[in-house]
Amino acid sequence: MQASSSTNALPTWLHQSFSLAEGTTVGRLFWRLAVALLLGCVVAGLYRGTHRDEPITPSFPRTLVLLSILIAMVTQVIGESIARAFSLAGALAIVRFRTVVRDTQDTAFVIFAVIVGMAAGADHLWVAVLGSGVVGIAILILRPRRRVTGWSEEECDLTLRFPLGANPETLLGPVFKEHVQNFEIRSVGTAQKGTSLEVTYRLRLRSGARPFDLIADLNKTEGVQSVDLSRAEET
């Protein structure tokens, strides 16, 4: 009787604030959020597995886990209320990722985390579990095979700086003839407040040519101020 009277003594607004949707208990709510956490870890694990040989943003896998839990919470808040759905959609539309997503596949993982979070929050666990399994299989099938290639087997980007007024073609002719199979100019501009000329080439080394030898010969070339050679980014 004392417990009942103390419960009834709670203010109405406080009692309503802690009320749950019909058919939902605190234990069931905790279970859904725990499943969202587990599935978020699965998404983050798959992401790390597909980027094992690539540099990744350290916070991105953690973001995927937190996103799954947050979406599960949002799904619980919305329930079957259309008004809440539109209100939350407008509020969440304000949120933006400050970090530019470098790979379109990263966007797919963000959507993956959102979906498993929604599935856990809506208590559709079979969708989340089976969907995660199918996505994992798809990742294994579609993942490109790793192959070790030499510098001469793929294109490279070479960025050079010259004194303003220098003729790059004259300076680079002998070096390119020895080390470079073919090349094209990608960009031309000024650097160091207009005191230097910066030129970027897309090139392919000759068979057997070493990048170290190319850089060494370019550094010996009079008029070359700086050299930067890197593998060309995929477009």
Keywords:
single chain, 235 residues, Alpha-Beta Plaits, 4-stranded antiparallel sheet, 9 helices, 4 strands, 54% helix, disordered N terminus
Characterization of this structure:
This protein is α+β, with helices and mostly antiparallel strands. It folds into 2 domains: 2-142, no CATH class; 151-231, Alpha-Beta Plaits (2-Layer Sandwich). The protein has helices at 2-8, 12-17, 26-50, 59-78, 82-92, 104-121, 125-142, 168-179, 211-220; strands spanning 156-163, 180-191, 196-205, 226-231. The protein has a 4-stranded antiparallel β-sheet, with helices on one face. Helix 3 (26-50) runs antiparallel to helix 4, helix 3 (26-50) runs antiparallel to helix 6 (104-121) and helix 6 (104-121) runs antiparallel to helix 7 (125-142). The chain is elongated. The chain starts with a helix and ends with a strand.
Strand and helix map with partners:
Layout: H1 2-8, H2 12-17, H3 26-50, H4 59-78, H5 82-92, H6 104-121, H7 125-142, E1 156-163, H8 168-179, E2 180-191, E3 196-205, H9 211-220, E4 226-231
Antiparallel strand pairs: 1-3, 1-4, 2-3
Helix pairs in contact: 3-4, 3-6, 3-7, 4-6, 6-7, 8-9
Mind telling me the C-alpha Rg? 29 Å
Helices and strands, in order, run as HHHHHHHEHEEHE
Whole-number total of structural domains: 2
Proportion of residues in extended strands: 15-25%
